[in-house]
Amino acid sequence: MFGIEGNTRETPSDAQTHQVVACELLTGQTINKPTPTNDEPPVQRASLRMQTKRSFLMMSELNRKRMELAASGKDMVIGWEMTPAEALAFFQSLRKTVVTFFGYSVAYENEKAMLKIAEDVLARYSPETFLINIGATYAGAGGIYPIAKGRGYKTTGIVSSLAIQYLDDISNDVDHVCFIRDTQWGGKLPGLHTLSPTSQAMVACSDILVGIGGGKITRDEMLAGREQGKDVYFHPAEISHAYWIQRAQKLHLPPPVSFLGAAHEAFGSKQA
Asked: Is 152 left (phi over 0), alpha (psi -120 to 50) or beta?
């Protein structure tokens, strides 16, 4: 039994409410509520029931999505809250050289150009000895997944456990996903030079790092890869202008003067 946000402990009446709501959701029938006691104002009890019902529904939807992924027939999810070391152990068990694509997780301004770069990179490697790793979701650089699958590559994805709330965004063309236990999407930890667990896993599991544009997380991961002596290649690419302008407006920021991203600031026009 779980507590409602803001409560430090659960009273017997709270527990009874949770049980009643759970039964209602399971049976589809409304169960007569017990008469509130003097210390249980009707409005407070109704509010508790509504909060409890919302929590159950959210958990039910999340579990449904988890079951759909588990039933995909691809053994897609390797772990829901993995450590970087656990992810590395899994990748090593595949016995393939890992080519990881880094970039934007949202639309590119010129998606065709981005995919052409990816196709040229893929042409250098054999599916027999290499696998393709990205960030698990279908948007942005995740658009490379279908191309990689079409060429016969095994595909993998590494993503923060925050993405568990957005399972519909996981690509249908990724064979294995490692959700890394993390409190942020990646990049450096606040005020530190240490990478977050997700970015630690991304760098550790990658043998060849290929950036196609990208923001701060891409920049931090590729810089870490270079520091570790890994092969790092970068190709400039612009993020969607419309997306970047709308984001600035939403955050009350000045209009953007560049759409090339933070990774470009670090790697400039260096290409391979």
From this structure: left
Q: Which residues contact 110 (CB under 8 A, 6 or more apart)?
A: 237, 238
Are 201 and 148 members of one domain? yes
Tell me the pLDDT tens digit for each residue of 243-260. 999 999 999 999 999 999
Tell me, yes or no, whether 2 lies in a domain: no
Number of domains the chain is built from: 2
Predicted TM-score (pTM) above 0.85 = no
22 Cβ contact list (under 8 Å, min separation 6): 56
Q: How far is residue 24's CA from residue 30's CA, in Å, rounded to a whole number? A: 6
| 102 and 82 fall within a common domain | yes
Question: Nearest-5° angle of CA 95, CA 101, CA 102?
Answer: 135
**How far apart, in Å, are the Cα atoms of 183 and each of 73, 161, 180, 243?**
29, 8, 10, 25
Tokens standing for residue 198: 């997700």
Q: Enter the tokens of residue 69.
A: 């992924």
pLDDT tens for 30-62 read 545 444 445 555 555 566 556 655 655 555 655
Residue type, 198: T
Nearest to 131 by CA among 208, 68, 71: 208
Do 44 and 148 have their domain in common? no
For the chain, counts of helices (H) and of strands (E)? 9, 7
